[in-house]
Amino acid sequence: MRLRGDRWRPREIGRYPLDLRLNSAAGAATEYRTYAALMEFLDVHRIMCSSTHRRVLPLLFAFLLAPIVWSSAASAQSIRGLVRRYRIDSKTQQDVDASAAGGKRQQTLLDRSAFLRVTLTDSAGGKSLHVVIDSILERGANLPASSAVSADSARGKVFDGFLDPAGSVVSLTYPKLAGSLGTALGGQLEVMLPTLKSGFKTGDDWTIRSERPQPVANGRLLVKRSTAYAAMGETVREGIAAARLDMTFTTAVTGTQQVGGATAKVEGNSMGSGSAFVSKAGVYLGGMRIEKTDRRLRVPGAAAPIVVTAEGATTISLLR
After folding, report:
1. Helix/strand/coil for 80
2. Where on the phi/psi map is residue 208: left (φ > 0), alpha (ψ -120 to 50), or beta?
3. In the Cβ-directed half-sphere of 280, how many Cα atoms lie within 13 Å?
4. How confident is the model at residue 179 (pLDDT cuts 50, 70, 90)?
5. What is the rounded CA–CA span in Å between residue 164 and residue 230?
6. Rounded to two decimals, what is the model's pTM?
7. Which residues contact 167 (CB under 8 A, 6 or more apart)?
8. Is the pLDDT of residue 1 over 80?
9. How far apart are CA 14 and CA 28, in angstroms?
């Protein structure tokens, strides 16, 4: 369907990043977001001045007078799930000192770009999360020989999980990937989507705490996180009006991991900061974070623990 003398097409509505939440206090709020999205695309002033306004206005008033019908159509789209593509660029400098366990000291520099397809689908009590790895590119210095093979074999692998109504990851299954790639990507997905306070406004702040297991190669870790958010105001991200959320976070890790055929006890912590951008419809538009990590791996019989320190920076972009 096309309106003569005007460039607007109804199918463009599907491109607007609506992410209506069925399990929120919807009703009027849902209808308002639907109305706002519609008004943005109709560009009322241009249509009023065009030769086709007499045909368009009845359609516009039909939408306004019957919001329940329009909301149902938008909700149906939300139930099916919207697929969005993200790019995660991360740079990490890691220092491993294994001299106390009979090893040596080694530094690595990793520059990784991961392209992901993310689907969020409304479900009872939250949203299901489905992430497919499109491709991964790894570059750096002193990387293990298996790095390139691991990145190539990751294509098409899937992470599945579930988010609570606020957007926190409450479960995430990791695919089997060579080396530490699965753990690294899974850890990024665990914290990629910000946890939102319902109805937040500029100046609000809130803190989210979580405790979740994280699988590693031949081991298992328990990760405790505390993230403090602050709503900083409105900005523009990826050409879309967005709220900027600044965050600071700390992480404590305990568990076990295989090191050189022995089971090592793991203890560590990390801290960092970052920003996330969210559209008025609740769509995550990307963000960035920096983090410092300090871990100790205690191997039986070793005089001192293996010390692993790292500094990293991550940028996440929504691909359109």
Report:
1. helix
2. beta
3. 17
4. low
5. 20
6. 0.71
7. 127, 193, 194, 195, 196
8. no
9. 21
- Our CA angle for 14, 19, 22, nearest 5°, is 120
Q: What is the DSSP letter of 99?
A: G
DSSP H or E segment with residue 64? helix 53-65
- Which residues have a Cβ under 8 Å from the Cβ of 29 and sit 6 or more positions away? none
pLDDT over 90 (residue 102) = no
C-beta neighbour count of 102 within 10 angstroms? 11
Cβ-contact 35, 67 below 8 angstroms: yes
Task: Report the C-alpha dihedral over residues 214, 216, 219, 220, rounded to 10 degrees.
Answer: 0
Query: What percent of the chain stands above pLDDT 70?
Result: 71
How high is the pLDDT of residue 84? 94
Q: Give residue 206's Cα distance to chain centre.
A: 19
Q: Over pLDDT 90: what percentage of the chain? A: 48
| Dihedral (CA of 24, 73, 129, 139) sign | negative
* CA neighbours closer than 13 Å in the CB half-sphere of residue 123: 14
DSSP summary character for residue 12: G
The pLDDT confidence band at residue 146, using thresholds 50, 70 and 90, is: low
One-character DSSP codes across 116-182: EEEEEEEETTEEEEEEEEEEEEEEEES--THHHHHHHHTTT-EEEEEE-TTS-EEEEEPP--STTHH
Distance CA 22, CA 1 (A): 29
